[in-house]
Design goal:
The complex is a heterotrimer of chains A (286), B (364) and C (315). Chain A is 68% helix and 1% strand. Chain A has 286 residues and is mostly helical. In chain A, strands 1-2 form a two-stranded antiparallel ribbon. In chain A, helix 4 runs parallel beside helix 7. The two termini of chain A are 23 Å apart. The mean pLDDT of chain A is 83. In chain B, strand 19 and strand 20 form a beta hairpin. In chain B, helix 3 crosses helix 4 and helix 3 packs parallel to helix 5. The mean pLDDT of chain B is 86. Chain C has 315 residues and is an all-alpha fold. Chain C has two domains: 69 residues, no CATH class; 198 residues, Orthogonal Bundle (MetI-like fold), CATH 1.10.3720. Chain C starts with a helix and ends with a helix. The chains are: A mainly alpha (286), B alpha+beta (364), C mainly alpha (315). Chains in contact: A-B, A-C, B-C. Chain A: One of its GO terms (biological process) is transmembrane transport. Chain A: Its main location: membrane. Chain A: It is a multi-pass membrane protein.
């Protein structure tokens, strides 16, 4: 269909505005991350949108180099929180994907565990805040507080619904004829699952795992409640980048924020095709 | 009612030329079938007439009016889609009323016209049913009714019978033809099925590779194909074409079929004119139905490859030296696979085509 | 000689065996997920119920199993009913939902409509517009925290546009803080609506849109009579997802305002969080959490029942 020129002009104008609004916060943080102390401390009329003398000082600072301008060095560097975020989100993804994939296959093929879908939907519905009291009590009891594996375990449970629903829709779409052919060849059901189905599902598995990883990596509240010092994750640690002495360390926060923001954005673009499926629990497969 | 005129139409999709150059006039009130194999550009032509796609160059006229730049919303053609595109979230009644409603026709008038068209198309019992689960013949009538209710001057049908099973198709064909007579609209009907085109259309436009090959009445297209493509495409089986060279013997022009022998003297006018122009290499064409058995050493000498006997007729597959062909007989014939056959086409049935251009060497 | 019946019986047994093996494998496969759900759902909920009936706190010096000694005759639930701070947190949460979700829906729908057909640069713009939803919400919180400082870029832009020096203290004014939080939420989650609604729009059958156009429907008529009804299920899903997620709003909000100034932006999650970490009145928190959980479950149950009923009515 031919569109009038006026519509095209309007479309580009509207999209340009939306893109600008989308990018301003991201651009601002990126700019702050590369500003020297004097620039990120500037306010009001002295603000600069573009770093005048770009520097990596903020990144050096969060990894332990003392700042001459601030006359401080960090007591704890960002290295451990980054490690904590990686470990907890990574192993959380492993747990969710392992349990979720197996259960999805069981349900998709053998109609086992009929109560699971609804239970998992409900799990997703609840605000994590509302189940945290017993979790905190249990985690104290099991000595899982302030450990990366304690965090990974709860992440695995919280994102299990996503892993399960995503993989279930993928298994539902997977042609059974292929499995049946292997069964006729004398493979056991479980071997077929391991040796035939899973390898052929490598791509959906990878995108589901990335999706789940983004969700785990994005958590703030649970880490805030279950970690405090030793294994604080990036967002929790970020709050410590200010004090009564130094004030808000915007440059350092921006630098760390950038480090935290980059992996999920890249992963998200990589799995763009499956985002809708993941977000709608497979109700929409586009 | 309105005639349709396509003038110098071309359509490119990137580097692909869907329509190379097309001029076509559809008369007022005519039923024209646009016939061709899939990918020949017939659906694109239809979409351009409806305004769904713009032509790359060329004009579309409805009567005197140039509608090339009129958007599809206001072109006002009735269109029946291959899958009918029924609004399945609406009732049958809402589907029928749609075109009137969006035009702002007052409610009593809508009710009246819906009732009238439903009556006419025998849809009255289904009016308040949801349209999602109706049988295909009702869906087809609904699709036609939905377009017909706004009384378009032009009706376009895009392979409306391709989703219907073979048994039902005959019924639908009659029904469609009947409807067209009632509505008296200009109808363009896209199909790849020559039987549909032959039985329903006033005229047939044959397309191939984005080029209009021939326009004519069904019999005209059948009897006097304009070129080799039409000759082979129309008819089931298509026309036999044997390579031949023209030569003059005793003042008569004959076609030398090589190993298969020499034809009888050809009718004078066209063959002679062609020969005079220096055209020697031709296709010697004749319908399989126009063959009769001849005595040995007469007619076309061929060897029989196999024979299909299908009750009412007998199809003989033969090999005539440089080309294979088929012969259709109304009765059984004393031939057998592997044997020799001598057959002769009726003089009036012989058609010649220029082998270098593929065009018919006609009376004109 | 084996009779026909015997052969059939053997076959039936074999099939039965295979069936049983399949069922067992299905059970094994779903077991880990079942255990995890049990671990997070059933046992903790029982514990939550138990604690909610007491005034137990981690500072009470007793293990949680001894909480019965602090039984308080449903005082937690009775207090909740008259706790003004709870009711205002609930209302505030609903207000956030009432502002953010419709805004995200309308903006997302408008963008989706612009992206319905092809144009130059579509893929790049699409990828850019999806970025906010992938930014870690806590980081987004810091972004907007920086943007809304009184000496920050938002005021800077406002100054440039208005020509005066604007120095609004966004985050320390109760209603402005509310707006800032809503802006951050809309910025982050409009892309999700856009993504889902665009998928929905592209799923509307092209033939039907063309048929409507040929029947004389203009764009708006097509939108109302074909696109919206066809997208109904998807719109319900998109709204449901955002309503549920928005109800839990915490990360961006807590980092930007910590529920402040005062309790001006305190939503349910922030309220519960503060009770948990500052007041340490875990018995009370458990009671609130249970009330929230039960209300949500009932709401979900009603929604699913209605949906099923509608589907049955439609078929």
């Amino acid at each position: 269909m031919r569109r009038p020129i006026a519509f095209e002009v309007f479309r580009y104008a509207a999209i340009a505005l939306a893109v600008a609004i989308t990018l301003v916060p991201i651009a601002w943080m990126t700019s702050m991350a590369f500003k020297p102390t004097a620039e990120w401390q500037a306010t009001g009329a002295n603000l600069t949108w573009w770093p005048k003398s770009p520097t990596l000082d903020n990144f050096r600072f969060i990894f332990g180099q003392s700042s001459t301008a601030l006359i401080v060095a960090l007591e704890r560097t960002a290295a451990k929180p980054i490690l904590s975020s990686l470990l907890s989100a990574g192993f959380g993804t492993l747990i969710a994907m392992g349990a979720g994939t197996a259960a999805a296959y069981g349900l998709s093929r053998f109609k086992a565990g009929g109560n699971l879908p609804l239970a998992l939907l409900q799990l997703r519905l609840f605000p994590p805040m509302a189940v945290m009291i017993p979790v905190m009590v249990m985690w104290t009891f099991l000595k899982l507080n302030d450990t990366w594996f304690g965090l990974a375990l709860i992440y695995g449970i919280v994102t299990l619904p996503f892993a399960f629903w995503l993989m279930k829709t993928f298994f539902d779409d997977f042609p059974r004829e292929i499995e049946e052919a292997a069964l006729v060849e004398g493979c056991s059901r479980f071997r077929v699952f391991l040796k035939v189905t899973l390898p052929m599902m490598a791509a959906p598995l990878a995108s589901s795992a990335l999706f789940v990883f983004i969700l785990n990596w994005s958590d703030y509240l649970i880490a805030l409640l279950l970690t405090n010092r030793e294994w604080a994750t990036i967002p929790v640690y970020m709050a410590s980048l200010s004090s009564s002495m130094t004030g808000q360390l915007y440059g350092a926060k921006a630098a760390l924020g950038l480090i935290a923001a980059v992996p999920p954005v890249i992963a998200g673009i990589a799995i763009q095709r499956h985002l809708v499926r993941g977000l709608t629990f497979g109700a929409l497969k586009q | 009612m309105s005639s349709i005129h396509l003038k110098g139409l071309t359509k490119h999709f990137g580097s692909f030329q869907a329509i190379k150059q097309m001029d076509l006039d559809v008369h007022d009130g005519e039923f024209l079938a646009l016939l061709g194999p899939s990918g020949c550009g017939k659906s694109t032509t239809m979409n351009i007439i409806a305004g769904m796609e713009g032509a790359t160059t060329g004009r579309v006229l409805f009567g005197e009016r140039d509608v090339s730049d009129v958007p599809m919303t206001r072109r006002g053609v009735g269109f029946v889609f291959q899958n009918y595109a029924i609004f399945t979230h609406m009732s049958v009644r809402a589907n029928l009323a749609y075109g009137l409603k969006v035009r702002g026709v007052p409610k009593p008038e809508i009710d009246k016209r819906v009732a009238a068209i439903a009556d006419f198309l025998q849809l009255a019992p289904f009016l308040d049913r949801p349209s999602a689960k109706l049988s295909v013949n009702i869906l087809q009538r609904l699709a036609i009714g939905r377009s017909a209710i706004v009384q378009p001057a032009i009706f376009l049908l895009d392979e409306p019978l391709s989703n219907v099973d073979a048994a039902f198709r005959a019924v639908m064909r009659t029904e469609l033809k009947h409807l067209q007579r009632q509505f008296k609209q200009t109808m363009v009907y896209v199909t790849h099925d020559q039987l549909e085109a032959m039985t329903m259309a006033d005229r047939i436009a044959v397309m191939d590779h984005g080029v209009l090959q021939q326009v004519g009445t069904p019999l005209d297209v059948y009897n006097n194909p304009a070129n080799v493509f039409v000759a082979r495409f129309i008819g089931s089986p298509g026309m036999n074409l044997l390579p031949a060279s023209l030569r003059e013997t005793d003042g008569n022009i004959v076609a030398d079929l090589g190993a298969a022998g020499v034809s009888r003297p050809l009718p004078r006018g066209a063959a002679k004119a062609a020969y005079a122009q220096g055209i020697q290499d031709v296709w010697f064409g004749f319908r399989p139905e126009e063959l009769s058995l001849a005595a040995d050493s007469q007619g076309i000498a061929a060897s029989v490859t196999f024979i299909e006997r299908i009750g009412s007729r007998t199809v003989v597959h033969f090999d005539a030296g440089q080309a294979a062909g088929k012969a259709v007989f109304q009765n059984d014939v004393p031939l057998h696979a592997g044997g020799a056959a001598h057959m002769v086409p009726a003089d009036a049935a012989v058609r010649l085509f220029d082998r270098s251009t593929g065009r018919a060497i006609g009376e004109a | 000689m084996t009779s026909f019946a015997e052969t059939e019986a053997t076959l039936a047994i074999a099939a039965d065996d295979a069936d049983r093996a399949d069922r067992r494998l299905g059970l094994y496969l779903t077991l880990p997920a079942q255990i995890l759900v049990l671990f997070i759902a059933v046992f903790p909920l029982l514990m939550q119920l138990y604690i909610s009936l007491t005034s137990w706190s981690p500072l009470s010096g007793r293990g949680w199993w001894d909480a019965w000694t602090l039984w308080n005759n449903f005082a937690n639930y009775l207090n909740l009913a008259v706790d003004a701070r709870w009711w205002s947190a609930l209302l505030r949460t609903l207000l956030v939902m009432a502002i953010c979700v419709p805004a995200e829906f309308l903006l997302g729908l408008a963008l989706a409509i612009l992206f319905m057909d092809n144009f130059r640069g579509k893929r790049v713009f699409y990828s850019i517009l999806l970025m906010p939803m992938m930014v870690v919400p806590a980081v987004a919180g810091y972004m907007f925290f920086m943007l809304f400082q009184s000496g920050g870029p938002v005021n800077n832009i406002a100054s440039a546009i208005s020509g005066h020096n604007v120095a609004i203290a966004w985050l320390s004014n109760p209603s402005l803080a509310f707006i800032a939080v809503a802006v951050a939420d809309i910025w982050q989650w409009t892309p999700l609506m856009f993504l889902i609604l665009l998928a929905g729009l592209l799923g509307v059958p092209d033939d039907q849109l063309k048929a409507a156009t040929l029947l004389g429907a203009n764009w708006w008529q097509r939108f109302v009579t074909i696109m919206l009804p066809r997208m109904r299920a998807i719109i319900v899903i998109a709204l449901a997802i955002r309503l549920i997620e928005n109800f839990k709003i915490f990360d961006t909000l807590y980092i930007m305002t910590a529920g402040g100034p005062g309790t001006a932006t305190e939503t349910i999650s922030v309220f519960i969080y503060k009770l948990t970490t500052n007041d340490l009145s875990w018995g009370y928190v458990a009671a609130i959490a249970l009330v929230v959980l039960i209300s949500l479950s009932v709401a979900l149950g009603i929604a699913i029942a209605r949906q099923t009923k509608r589907r049955e009515a439609a078929s």
